[in-house]
Input
Amino acid sequence: MRRTFVFATTGTEAMEVKKVTTDKLFRGLLILTCALFHHFKNQKPAVLNLRFFRLSLRARPGNSMPKIYLKTYGCQMNERDSEQVLRTFSEGGYTVTTKENEADAILINTCSVRDQAEQKALGKMGHMMHAGRDRKHVVYGFMGCMAQSRGDELFKAVPSLDVVVGTQKYHRVFEYVDTILKRRLEARMDDPTYSLRGDSVCDVAEEEGSQNTIRDHVVKPRESSAFVSIMQGCNMRCSFCIVPDTRGKERGRPIHDIIGEVRHLAANGVKEVTLLGQIVNLYGRNEFPKINGKSPFVQLLEAVHEIEGIERIRFTSPHPIGYRDDLIAAFTYLPKLCSHIHFPMQSGSDRILREMRRPYRNEKFIEICEKMKAARPGIAITTDIIVGFPGETVEDFQMTIDTVERLQFDNAFVFRYSKRRNTPAAEMEDQLSEPEKESRNQRLLDVVNRIAIAKNAAIVGTTQQVLCEGPSKTKATRLTGRTAQNKVVIFDGEPDRLVGRLLDIQIEESGGFSLFGKVV
Output
């Protein structure tokens, strides 16, 4: 049993008492002996002052603070969840690092929408473990949707894994990782030959109120935009989708809590917020009442619109079910709402929509898009589309192409259907071959890209208001930002002067999917 001693240091100031465990006592006495020797050798008459003497309970190589590395795959909600997790580690005394090889804790926030996303996360973790095989104390963990879906079985797939934390337990990640890391570092000081593996935690249980734990931010200097999670979960049960299993049932945060979070962001210089939810327009439908015929989501949009300092409001992703006239009308009287919506269509075939358990017809989807264009002229609409769904015929696929041509989406994310565990679509007959899915994917992308390039070319010669986000990812010597229509614009300028500001940019050139211009 490890006993605890009290080690006291005295000086010209008040006595300071520090508790140290027996594994640190010898090291402490050695340091104290050296200090006394140095003191008397120099024959200083003053009382020896050791008030700065410390025995760190979180000792690590180099005596610096522990470091956390976090890799995120997937959607904007995952990015927001990762930000919350990093905030807890920063508050706990960790340093966030972008270098895997210097981290004491390595986490991956995972996605389960497609099998490819899961394989990327597993491959990345395997690579990092191999690269860090000589750093035995490092704690490795998965969190997020794949962790929620696979749970304990991940320890078999990745034998050296330490932590598996689901989507309702992000606020517990720090506690689990820090406990394991402390134990290992202390054990290593006891006996360098001590085995540092064996500790593990799996927590994928549901937790009431977990939607209210994603509320804190790490606001960087001159940060212009931020994600705000307003709800978690989904009740729709589309036949291809694993999200209801990984994110749970719909749970909304109280409006006043969200407003408080956005006010805090605005006070720190944020000008644009993106409201996040699995089906964001269904926010609060089971918790909060309609007022004057307005849904809780429209009430929230109105409240955010009133916050001083917030200049732009975005939201993602809505669903055709619940996209009612009150939300369409909001675009006519809330000018801070950006002229862009991401509106998942999935298929242009009514038959495939039924098989997908998407409770709307293609004409209803088209009708909503046309109403949005009337309410906000010039609005950009982007979408998600799945090709190669089980049983999709050539005729079904052509209906999707026809709808894309008719609606002229500004862009689209096109996905080949991917089987997901415990979903009805995975057990359907008439599964298409991978070559056929790839062929349809490419054909549809050709149509989407042709329309997107033409739309961007039409913007050349106009002046667009752009929110400057920072250095371009493709060329760090230039700046980048987005228009209200979510178009990426690259331009020259001084970061210290322009980042975080709304600028008028003269569009001079289109690179296909990015625009280039100059500050007016």
